[in-house]
Amino acid sequence: MLRSREDAVDVVHALFVDLIPRWSKDVDLPYLYRAVTNRCLNVLRDRGTRARLLEREQQMATPIGRVRLDDEVVGVGLIAKLADRLDEGHLEVLVARFVDDMTQEEIAEHLGISRKTVGKRLDRIRDQVISLRTEAAG
Amino acid sequence: MANLACIGEPISWLRLERYALAGGDTTIREHVDACAACRHCLDEIQRDVVALPVLAVPAKRRRWWRFAVPSFGVLAAAALILLLLLRPRAPHGENVVTVKGVGKVIVDVVRERAGTIRDDVRTFKPGDRFKVIVTCAPTHEVTLDVAVQETGATQPDRPLAKALLVCGNRIAVPGAFSLTGDKSHRVCVRISDQATACLTLAPE
Predict the structure, then answer these.
(1) How far apart (Å, rounded) are the C-alpha atoms in residues A47 and A76?
(2) CB atoms < 10 A from the CB of B192, how many?
(3) B134, B97 contact by CB (below 8 A)
(4) In the A/B pair of chains, how many CB contacts fall below 8 A?
């Protein structure tokens, strides 16, 4: 998601540093996924970090993008732009669908929301992407 | 690799991670065998086995009060114990003695004057009646021998018969006595032939 191994390692490290003192046994893979996603989103919301990541992304290989958003591979740049327009719930759905390649059913189960809500959020995400493109074109 | 497309519904990274960890899901295996894009992702997961650098957990700074609170507690407890041990104890009067097998025995008197009973006096006038009161730990038995001796007298009087009492709180020794004269009297009680408790009654 961050397209930077070093930053990803930092995020995972920070998560475990916070988790270890708690000695919680309720931590499973989906939880870690979601926790890491949220921390990555926080990194992208940070404008200073975002600029550095965007600059670095130019040199990085483009992600595979098995699931695309209107034929566009969702990378750091698009998430960063959408981060200013969408709330956390929408961003989580965005990442789950277009970065983690989850189906709508998986997203609903993963985030504990209904599939209908997932669909609504994906529609809104598309609206924002269209809006971004219109602004860029205009 | 950016042009790789999945042949159907892509297997999510989360499912691929689980498959890489535990395997067993034939649906995923079949899909991955047929789909280059998902196989590439699975390969990426399986290749990514490089252990993360050793996690340096920063030692949490323990705040001073975390040490201080228990320390204060220990200090307060120690101070309390010291206070209890070193507190100035009220000196036992002559009327309090310790008898082996019984413990502390307190001897006191009550005075009856013209129908008024008081237990906090040590004075007498002719006509007053006194009763001896004993307090000791319940269930014990003590023998009591009361002797009254006027100041200057060579021999004590024994106005009350020797008694056997079951201990309790302010148990009255059977019988009563009166005092005459203008000199102090010592009332002494011999308890179980082990100890003697005394008190002085002065004339008004």
Answers:
(1) 12
(2) 18
(3) no
(4) 58
Q: Is B178 exposed, middle or buried (0-12, 13-18, 19+ CB in 10 A)?
A: middle
Contact yes or no for A100 and B14 at CB 8 A: yes
Rounded distance between C-alpha atoms, residue B27 and residue B14, angstroms: 15
Structure ipTM: 0.82
C-beta of residue A33 within 8 angstroms of C-beta of residue A65: no
Angle separating helix axes A88-98 and A76-83, nearest 10 degrees = 160
The residue written with tokens 């009087």 in the block is B157
In terms of C-beta density within 10 A (0-12 exposed, 13-18 middle, 19 or more buried), how is residue B111 classed? Answer: buried
Q: Tell me the shortest Cα–Cα distance from A17 to chain B, in angstroms.
A: 6
Which DSSP letter does residue B158 get?
A: -
Q: Tell me if A20 and B4 make a contact (CB, 8 A cut-off).
A: no
- Which residue shows structure tokens 């507690």? B73
Place of tokens 């046994």: A25
Q: In the 8-state DSSP scheme, what is residue B119?
A: S
Q: Compute the distance between CA of residue B141 and CA of residue B159 in angstroms, rounded to an integer.
A: 21
Question: Which residue is listed with tokens 């036992």?
Answer: B92
pLDDT digits 0-9 by tens, A80-126: 888 888 999 999 999 999 989 999 999 999 999 999 999 999 999 99
Could you tell me the domains of chain B? Answer: 96-203 (2.60.40.3020)
CB atoms within 10 A of CB B47: 8
